[in-house]
Amino acid sequence: GEDVEQSLFLSVREGDSSVINCTYTDSSSTYLYWYKQEPGAGLQLLTYIFSNMDMKQDQRLTVLLNKKDKHLSLRIADTQTGDSAIYFCAESYSGGGADGLTFGKGTHLIIQP
Amino acid sequence: GAGVSQSPSNKVTEKGKDVELRCDPISGHTALYWYRQSLGQGLEFLIYFQGNSAPDKSGLPSDRFSAERTGGSVSTLTIQRTQQEDSAVYLCASSLGLGGPYEQYFGPGTRLTVT
Predict the structure, then answer these.
(1) How far apart, in whole angstroms, are the C-alpha atoms of residue A20 and residue A17?
(2) Is A67 helix (H, G, I), strand (E, B) or coil?
């Protein structure tokens, strides 16, 4: 079955880079996503990557995909206190039909001053 | 514009009672999804709608759960004879189309507590 794994916690100092890692098992995954959930708020899509790409950069965010190892990472440069949140890795397969997203359990990003 | 809205935001119910959760998607979004977020299970996908149709109901946790969507817009998730293990945050999302790369926009969720 499908499975998405993430570390539960990551602690970084303000100004450093944060790297959140994710592994998935479904080799047919077509799209991989990073969502952010702030306390008391809904899920917000940060970025996504198509499975035929190996890197995507968007301002402070860099997504790396190693399809062979089924490993996805999200790097946040110059981490700020406003980046404190839970970050969810998710995958979907668009084989002509719809599907929901399969989420990891989320990584709590803790920013130290 | 307005995002996805859900009501109620919080619901406390007694074990054995039925509850109905409502989702108002973004106008024009044909796809609608229900998820459940709980401490033990993380985020679980429950069901999706394309228009008013839900082709696959296998993600619903039990036959006490049902969902419908009318007019290609509002959706309700009904839980009959609630159990304590149903306590969770129920999230609704909508998107312009099905699957990736269409972004799923999430509502704030309904926190259900079964006592």
Answers:
(1) 10
(2) coil
- How far lies B7's CA from each of B2, B31, B77, B104, B114, in Å? 15, 19, 11, 19, 16
Beta strands (DSSP E) in A8-98 are 9-13, 18-24, 31-37, 43-50, 55-58, 61-66, 71-76, 85-92
Q: Looking at the DSSP assignment, which residues form a beta bridge with residue A13?
A: A112
CA distances from B30 to A6, A84, B26 (A): 31, 33, 9
Q: Are B38 and B84 in contact (CB under 8 A)?
A: no
Whether B99 sits inside 8 A of A93 (CB atoms) is yes
Per-residue model confidence as pLDDT tens digits over B53-63: 888 888 899 99
Report CB contact under 8 Å: A102, B107: no
Q: Is the minimum CB–CB distance between B75 and chain A shorter than 8 Å?
A: no
Please indicate if any CB of chain B lies within 8 Å of the CB of A100.
yes
Nearest-by-Cβ selection for B42 from A43, A44, A104: A104
Closest CA to A103 of B53, B73, B56, B106: B106
Each residue's pLDDT, cut to its tens digit, for chain A (113 residues) gives 458 999 989 999 999 999 999 999 877 778 899 999 998 788 899 999 988 889 999 999 999 999 999 999 999 999 999 999 999 999 887 644 456 788 999 999 999 98
Smallest Cα–Cα separation from A104: which of B4, B37, B94? Answer: B37
